[in-house]
Amino acid sequence: MATPPPPLRRATLLLAAVLVGALASTARADLVISRADRRVDLTSHIVRVLSSLKVENVGPDPDSQVLLSSPNIQAKNLAAIRAFATEGKVKGPSTVLSIEVVQPSGAPPELTFFSALLPKPLEKGKILHLDVLTVFTHSLQPFPEEINQAEAQLVVYQDSAHYLSPYPVKVQTLAIRLPGGRVESYTRHPSAKLVDSELKYGSSEELPPFSYLPVIVHFENNNPFAVAKEVIREIEISHWGNVQITEHYNIAHGGARLKGEFSRNLIARLPPRAHSIYYRDEIGNISTSHLWSDSKKTQLEIEPRFPLFGGWQTTFTVGYGLPLQDFVFYSDGKRFLNITFGSPIEEILIEKLIVKVVLPEGSKDIEVSAPFPTKQWQEVKYSHLDIVGRPVVVLEKPDVIPEHNLYFQVYYKFNNISLLREPLMLITGFFLLFLACIVYMGTDMSISKSSPSYLAKLQWDEVQATVQKIQGIFEQCLAVHDKLEASLRDLSRTGDIQSCKAARKAADAQFKELSKELKPLLTSLQSSPQSYQIWPKVEDLIIKEREMQEKLMTRHSTVVDSFEKKLRGQHLENRIALQQQKIAALRQEVESLLEYISEI
Ligand SMILES: *[C@@H]1O[C@H](CO)[C@@H](O)[C@H](O)[C@H]1NC(C)=O
Ligand SMILES: *[C@@H]1O[C@H](CO)[C@@H](O)[C@H](O)[C@H]1NC(C)=O
Prior knowledge:
Radius of gyration: 33 Å
Oligomer: single chain
Number of helices: 9
InterPro entries: Ribophorin_I
Distance between the termini: 86 Å
Signal peptide: 1-29
Helix content: 25-40%
GO cellular component, one term: oligosaccharyltransferase complex
Coiled coil: 569-596
Bound molecules: 2-acetamido-2-deoxy-beta-D-glucopyranose
Family: Belongs to the OST1 family.
Number of strands: 32
């Protein structure tokens, strides 16, 4: 069954008609492109075009710029443009040219023009090799617009077989690299050739300026079309040794809307020494994210929790820490952050990226250096112990693609004394608290001295009784811990996942029940003046036990999950072993605390 050919955008046809009539008056006829080779890469959803041009000055005067042009309908999706030039016949080291948007007089309004400024004018008779990389987003149109999970995703790409230029072009080739699946249809100009998922067009007759010959190709592209509506990337510098990154994503699938269920994984490439990595969606931690690392990178695979439905959208947060010394440096009396701008997720298009750099409190003389224009402003972020708040530099950029993953710098001045402010505040705070305690204990003792001694004795007995009950509850908690451990041992013996999960559910219910029983006891203990000595230990006990409970539950689900999905591997084993070590250490602490309070 033949699929109907996709509609050629009307604008494209109109453009072709307009350009036929365009006058070459725009271009100074003294430049000629003697050869143009274009490679279009359509293997992902971000379209990359590399145009290698051989530009010749055939006129009498030197020229200091080369004009590049692009139809407005294409230019509006342009995310990046870069030009590199080499003068001479042989390709040598190239220089990066600065590019600006210009409007030559008499130019057709349907086109956007860029001027690549040459480092030195191109003399008469000389040749310049110019490589122009242009990157486009939103340029692959899903067709049909709606598909089932089982169907391949087909998209349409449109371009011109002729290099659209204000100069005459003598010889040219166009090679369109496709992802390798089915090719539904393509425009069959006489020069068209499809070989091994590469579609080629070419011409070796001299064509006048603004030659335009529409081509469309309709092909299969099953790559995830991850488009983030918005990403907020917070980079918080702590001079105590850490750069904390937190990235909030709001992602949509930009490809064909799916009629059925669908799920895709995303890969994030983090810097090599990233640590404390977490991934969280609206509901909480996701166990199905996988992590690999070697000396060059850390790779995180994110698998959304639920199968996602047609036109899916999801929000989640990725966080990780980086060593301070890898990203913050010191030179000329200033510190500076040097880090990449974009998202670590592969082949993602971010419609709006907001990068927030949170500097330590007390930073001054802040300056930003970015390799491309961004909207910039400053904010203040408060966290506990801050007095004046932390200065935040905010950078915003639309349509960010992997090509924008370049280094940018934030320079700032910081006095080391500021670093001591928070600890000093803490110390002062503790000292005041200590004084208050002394005063409090003094009054307390005078009360008990003046009270009948049996009253004090009663109070003390009550504390002891409460502590015993608390102790009993913690013993029960430990028994539940043991049951959980036993259920894992049973799992490896019997393979019964269901009863292992049931054990976890039961344990969860028991923990809740015990914590309910604990509450009134803690309130009563805390309100007793006799408990000042024992209370910190009880508090410590609660924290340690809670932590252990959480770790046990996590380990339990890690083991059950890997069992269920038949996952194996050194990394998983290591993770489980590490969790086990921490749990054992916590257990020891809990037991010794229990022993301590039983001796009062
Ligand atoms: C998420 O996982 C991390 C590490 O695995 C853990 O430290 C954290 O407490 C978890 N958070 C939640 C909300 O479960
Ligand atoms: C930032 O880091 C990159 C990669 O390490 C390096 O190439 C670049 O020179 C650095 N920039 C500055 C201003 O230090």
